[in-house]
Every structure is written in structure tokens, then in C-alpha cells.
UniProtKB/TrEMBL annotation:
Domain Cytochrome c assembly protein: 89-296
Family: Belongs to the CcmF/CycK/Ccl1/NrfE/CcsA family.
Protein name: Cytochrome c heme lyase subunit CcmF
A cellular component term, taken from the record's GO annotations: plasma membrane
Transmembrane segments: 6-26, 38-62, 82-112, 124-144, 176-196, 208-230, 250-267, 274-293, 313-331, 352-375, 395-414, 426-445, 451-469, 501-521, 626-643
Pfam families from the UniProt entry: CcmF_C, Cytochrom_C_asm
GO molecular function annotation: heme binding; heme transmembrane transporter activity; lyase activity
InterPro entries reported for this sequence: CcmF_C (IPR032523), Cyt_c_assembly (IPR002541), Cyt_c_biogenesis (IPR003567), Cyt_c_biogenesis_CcmF (IPR003568)
Compartments reported by the entry: Cell inner membrane
GO biological process: cytochrome complex assembly
Keywords: Cell inner membrane, Cell membrane, Cytochrome c-type biogenesis, Lyase, Membrane, Transmembrane, Transmembrane helix
Organism of origin: Pseudomyxococcus hansupus
């Protein structure tokens, strides 16, 4: 029964998506508003069907309906309830179904929020998003169908992948990542609508920017939580290994970040129009590429799913997307005429352009290193390996350049600068950066890149804090709008700027933590008998013996280790090995002693009860926790930038309406920014 109802809901979602996409695109291209009510109904129907299908699958999982193929694949009566529910996204078919749920939610949210705005764009935007929905519901109904019947019906199942049951982070990491991935569908739909219509202005750059920022936030949280999961679960003594699937999530993050910076130049100087829309389209295409890399099975990764039949389908869709995007940019690109120009290489718009080029260079480097092994195997029949040395060599200088530009950009003015003013603005931050570098060197830290990173972090932090407390200045002589509109627009921009600087502080925190934990990590390993001690970084670790236990879904063996910190504090760590029925190999859980300054990280590698020994890997990671602690800053800054200003909206509503604008420029487009 669950299988029949669930599959019927998926087919209903496919029908709604196909109908809405067809009506939205056709009526939008005909410049008729008559189809919008039908498109809206299709959106509600699509969202309802996908939500219903996911609820049916959760019901099947919780009630252990092993007649449903996906439940038989990942379900188990011994799995705790919370992991039973989250097994919805633990395997390929369920993850695509969950993807559809999030897509339905995003499209419905966009339709509801903008239901009274710009009918000519809404039809094309929603039609484009529903066209993407057609592809994913087709996958759920066909190559990735989780609803197939199983006969004979088994009494029990193997349960989800043990790696996904080993830490609570797996409850929140995949949904955050999916919310980031799927969220890129909305700005893609808006960008395509603008290009198809032949008009785009600030009134629609605003939602394009906001929805990209929403997806960017979720993607950022998902990436950081994924690194934390790798650190807390896999026990290999790290959090980022340039794994192909890690890279797949990093690529759209890079282009989305570049896009959000580029929109500032378009908003202020009416420049980089084609470039900005290209970044919006590229971010979505890279999410589809990342999904293909994760779910096709072409990469051997702990993060990826097993070999599947959806790879060719994804390749066809990816090729179609590339043709559509390149075609739109080629046909409409000549209409995206810049209305301004770079006044000086020392202007803020020039620094943002350089910032964009650095982000794109890093994107290309990571993409090339990720795909090169596949290209080499396809062309030469030789599978090569591209590892951390390549990525670090290419990406680390780019990261330092981004950090430098984070400090320089806010100081530079729009347009031509005044040299004397610039010198005054840079003196204090530059001195602080040099002092930080000197102090780090004096306490014994070495390495060109880490010292550059710490010095630049001091430089950027001073500038960012100064900008956070700087008063909002409204120069009416530069405004063409009325007083209320100018004041409101300035307040909105000030709010976005304030949120952006809070996010910058979070990014600085991450960069410093990555530099410190990578450059100054300490490591040792050894096999100990009961009572023996191993030392590292001033810590003394005494092996006290083994303990074992049994939980609902696993058994475990843990080593008791008494830790004496450099300051004399005594605590106990219990690194352990977990044994699951489905897995032939144990899965480790490291013991971690966390402090703001550093983490002591211990992994139990093996043990012998007969010999009374246990083997350990031990690391000391300076500042590594700062990576996870950056999440509140990223969330706070993004919420500040996104938070609606009710008074501003009222003021803007009362201000004179603005004229419409084609891609070639002219008056601003009708609607509130």
C-alpha cells in the first residue's frame, strides 16, 4: 500500500511539474499573464505531492514495511527511531526523493513570497524551476525509483550505512547540504527568466541576490558540518582531504560567493551584468555536476553513493543545461551592455573584479584536479591520482589572495580614490597586521604561508571591525530618488553591508583555523600496554585498559585513556571501535579533548585482549574548533543581511514607482529593490 500511494504521488508531482513548466514558459514567452494562476496551482500541487511522497516513505520506514524496496534496502528493526527516519537520505533513491521534497518546498516558498510581484517574470521563473522539477521527479519515478515491490517480503533489513549511524551530525549535515544544493534552483530560475524575457534590473536582481544568499548559507553550513563529521567520525585525523565529493560541494560555493560580490558592482555601477548572470547560472550547473559526481558512483569516496544507473541520465541533463546556459548567454549577452566603467584600478569595483577572478581561478583549479583522473582514464586508459599536494599548492595562494582582498575592498572607495585618504585608512590595519606577524614569529611560529595568513587576518579584522561600527552616511547629492527612497535604500544597503562584514569575520575565523591546524599539527602513534604512557605536545596519555558494551544497533570496544594536560588538568578519553552487523570492519569514534586553543585527538586503531595492548594514533590540532565555531557568525551575518525591514518596505511602497528597464539599461525597473 505504501509503495502504491508513494509512487502515485510521485507521478502526480511529475504531472504538475510538466504542466506548470509548459504553461509558465509558453505564456511567459508570449508575454501573457493569463497563465500565472495555473502555474501557481501547479506549484502547490507539485509541492504537495513531493511532501506527501516523503511522508509516505517515512511512514514505511518507521513501520518497517519491507515490501517497499527502499525500506528493504536500508531499514532494520534494530535501528534506533531517529536513524530510521534519517535513513530517508542514507541511500541513493531516498536521497533523490528527499531532494524532491526540498525542491518542492523552495519553489512553493518562492511562489508564495513573490506571488504579487512581476507576473511576467514569475511565469518564466516558476516555469524554469518546475522544468528542473520535471527532471528530478522523472528520476524518482524511473531510474531512482524507491517504491519497487519486494517479493518475498523479508522479515528484517540490513539497516542504513553504519557510517551514517555513527554520529548525530548525519542527522543535520545532509539536509543542510541538500538545502544549499537545491536552493540554487531558485536563482537559476530567476536568471533564466530575466534572460528569456530580455529584461533585468535591480527589482529582480534583489530576489536573485537574496535567494542565492539563502542557498549559500545552507551550503556553507553543510560543508562545515561535513568537515566536522569527517573529523569526529572517521578517525583519520583530519577534516578535509580534497575528496572529489568534498570538492563537489565546494565548487558551487566558490561561484555563488563570487556572484554575491559581483552583484554589488552591478547594483552600484551597472557593470559586470553578463558576468554576474554567468556566475548565477554556473552555480546551478555546478550543483548538478556535484550531484552527478556524488550519485553516479564514478568516484570511489566515503561520501559517495554506490554505482547506479542514473549516471547517464544526469550526464544528458548536464549537457542540456550547458547548451541552454551557453545559448542564452550567447543570444542575450550582447544586450547586457554595461552602463559604467572602471574609474580606477584602485577602486572598490576593481577590487571586487579581482576578487571574482581569484574565486573563478580557484574554481577552475579544483574542478580540473577533480575531473582530471576521469578525463585521463577516458582518453588514455590510465587512472591517475590527484591528491592534496596539487590542491594545496594551487588553492592556498588563492585563499591568501582572497583574505587580502577582504581587507582591501572595504577600504577602497567607489570610483576614483583620494591617495591621502587611502593612506590614512590603511595605516592602522597594516601596522596591526605587521605586529601580529612579528608576534607569531617571536613565539616560534614558522612558515611563510601561515605567517602571511595570521598577519592578513589581523589586517582584515581591524578593517572589518572598523566598518562594522562606522556610521551610515547618506549623500543625497549622489541620489536621483526622493528623500524617503534614498534614505530607505541607504538603510537597506547598510544592513546588507553590516551582515556581510559579520560573515567576513566568520570566514577569517575559518581561514586562521585551517592555517593553524594544518601547519602546526603534531602527530604520534604507538602501541601501549596497560599502564604505559605516550606523550605529545606536552600531553601525557596513560592507557588504563579496555571496556566493552552493547547498544541497540551496535556493539563497541573502547580504550580508557587518562590524559594529563600541559597545565596539569587530568581527564579521560575513550576512543572506541564500533561494530555493526552490516559492516565487516569496525568504525572508529575518536576521543577528543577540546579547548579553544587546541584539540587533543586520539583514535583507537587496534587492540589485543590476549596481549593486553592497544594501538593509538594521536594528534594535536591547534585552533581546529574555530572552524565549527564560525557557523554562528555565518548564520548571524546572513540573517542580518536577509532580515526584512518593515519600515523600509512601507517607505519604498510610498515612494514614486520606478520605470521598467530592458537589459540594455535605461531607467530602473518597476518594483521595490
Amino acid at each position: 500500500m505504501n509503495g502504491t500511494v508513494g509512487y502515485g504521488l510521485v507521478l502526480g508531482g511529475l504531472a504538475f511539474a510538466a504542466f506548470g513548466a509548459l504553461v509558465g514558459l509558453v505564456s511567459g514567452l508570449r508575454r501573457s499573464d493569463a497563465g500565472l494562476p495555473w502555474v501557481m496551482r501547479a506549484v502547490w500541487g507539485f509541492a504537495a505531492c513531493l511532501i506527501g511522497a516523503n511522508l509516505v516513505m517515512v511512514h514505511a520506514l518507521v513501520t518497517h514495511d519491507f515490501s517497499v524496496r527502499y525500506v528493504a534496502q536500508v531499514g532494520s528493526r534494530s535501528t534506533p527511531l531517529v536513524y530510521t527516519i534519517v535513513s530517508l537520505w542514507s541511500a541513493l533513491e531516498g536521497s533523490i526523493l528527499f531532494w524532491g521534497l526540498i525542491m518542492g518546498g523552495y519553489i512553493a516558498a518562492f511562489a508564495f513570497i513573490h506571488r504579487k510581484e512581476h507576473a511576467r517574470y514569475m511565469q518564466l521563473a516558476l516555469g524554469t524551476m518546475l522544468a528542473v522539477g520535471v527532471f528530478f521527479t522523472f528520476l524518482i519515478a524511473g531510474p531512482a525509483n524507491p517504491w519497487g515491490a519486494v517479493s518475498p517480503v523479508p522479515m528484517d533489513g540490513p539497516g542504513p550505512n553504519p557510517l551514517l549511524q555513527n554520529h548525530v551530525l548525519m542527522i543535520i549535515h545532509p539536509p543542510m547540504l541538500y538545502l544549499g544544493y537545491v536552493g540554487m534552483t531558485v536563482p537559476f530560475g530567476v536568471a533564466v527568466a530575466g534572460l528569456l524575457r530580455g529584461e533585468i534590473g535591480e527589482a529582480w536582481m534583489a530576489p536573485l541576490r537574496r535567494w542565492t544568499l539563502v542557498a549559500w548559507l545552507f551550503l556553507s553550513i553543510g560543508i562545515i558540518l561535513g568537515a566536522w563529521w569527517a573529523y569526529a567520525v572517521l578517525g583519520w585525523g583530519g577534516y578535509w582531504a580534497w575528496d572529489p565529493v568534498e570538492n563537489a560541494s565546494f565548487l558551487p560555493w566558490l561561484t555563488a560567493t563570487a556572484f554575491m560580490h559581483s552583484t554589488m558592482v552591478q547594483e552600484r555601477k551597472r557593470m559586470l551584468k553578463l558576468w554576474t548572470l554567468s556566475l548565477a547560472l554556473a552555480s546551478f550547473v555546478l550543483t548538478i555536476l556535484g550531484t552527478f559526481m556524488t550519485r553516479s558512483g564514478i568516484f570511489n569516496s566515503v561520501h559517495s553513493f554506490t554505482q547506479s544507473d542514473i549516471g547517464p541520465t544526469f550526464l544528458v541533463f548536464l549537457g542540456f543545461l550547458l547548451v541552454v546556459c551557453v545559448g542564452l548567454l550567447a543570444v542575450r549577452g550582447p544586450l547586457l551592455v554595461p552602463e559604467g566603467q572602471l574609474a580606477s584600478p584602485m577602486s572598490r569595483e576593481a577590487s571586487i573584479l579581482v576578487n571574482n577572478l581569484v574565486f573563478v581561478a580557484i574554481t577552475f583549479t579544483v574542478l580540473l584536479g577533480t575531473l582530471y583522473p576521469l578525463i585521463s582514464e577516458a582518453v588514455r586508459g590510465v587512472r591517475v591520482s590527484v591528491g592534496e599536494p596539487y590542491f594545496n599548492k594551487m588553492a592556498v595562494p588563492g585563499g591568501i589572495a582572497v583574505l587580502f582582498l577582504m581587507g582591501v575592498g572595504p577600504v577602497l572607495p567607489w570610483g576614483k580614490p583620494d591617495p591621502a585618504t587611502l593612506r590614512r585608512q590603511f595605516i592602522i590595519p597594516a601596522v596591526v597586521g605587521l605586529v601580529v606577524t612579528a608576534v607569531c614569529f617571536a613565539v616560534g611560529l614558522r612558515g611563510v604561508y601561515p605567517l602571511m595568513t595570521f598577519g592578513l587576518a589581523g589586517f582584515v579584522t581591524v578593517i572589518t571591525l572598523r566598518e562594522l561600527v562606522a556610521p551610515v552616511r547618506v549623500r543625497m547629492s549622489e541620489r536621483k530618488e526622493g528623500f524617503v527612497t534614498a534614505l530607505t535604500t541607504s538603510a537597506i544597503k547598510a544592513q546588507r553591508r553590516f551582515g556581510g562584514y559579520v560573515v567576513h569575520l566568520g570566514i577569517v575565523l575559518i581561514i586562521v583555523a585551517v592555517a593553524a591546524s594544518s601547519a602546526y599539527v603534531k602527530h604520534t602513534s604507538g602501541t601501549l600496554k596497560k599502564g604505559q604512557v605516550i606523550e605529545l605536545g606536552g600531553y601525557q596519555m596513560k592507557y588504563m585498559g579496555l571496556v566493552s558494551g552493547e547498544e541497540a544497533h551496535r556493539t563497541f570496544v573502547a580504550a580508557r585513556v587518562e590524559v594529563t594536560a600541559p597545565g596539569g588538568e587530568v581527564s579521560e578519553l575513550k576512543p572506541r571501535l564500533n561494530y555493526y552487523e552490516r559492516s565487516t570492519d569496525p568504525i572508529g569514534t575518536p576521543g577528543v579533548r577540546e579547548t579553544p586553543a587546541e584539540d587533543l585527538y586520539m583514535s583507537l586503531m587496534a587492540f589485543s585482549e590476549k596481549a593486553g595492548t592497544a594501538s593509538f594514533n594521536v594528534w594535536v590540532f591547534p585552533l581546529v574548533g574555530w572552524i565549527w565555531w564560525s557557523i554562528p557568525l555565518l548564520v548571524l551575518g546572513t540573517l542580518i543581511a536577509l532580515w526584512p525591514r518593515r519600515k523600509a518596505a512601507v517607505a519604498m511602497a510610498g515612494a514614486p514607482a520606478l520605470g521598467s528597464s530592458p537589459l540594455t539599461g535605461g531607467d530602473a525597473e518597476r518594483g521595490a529593490a
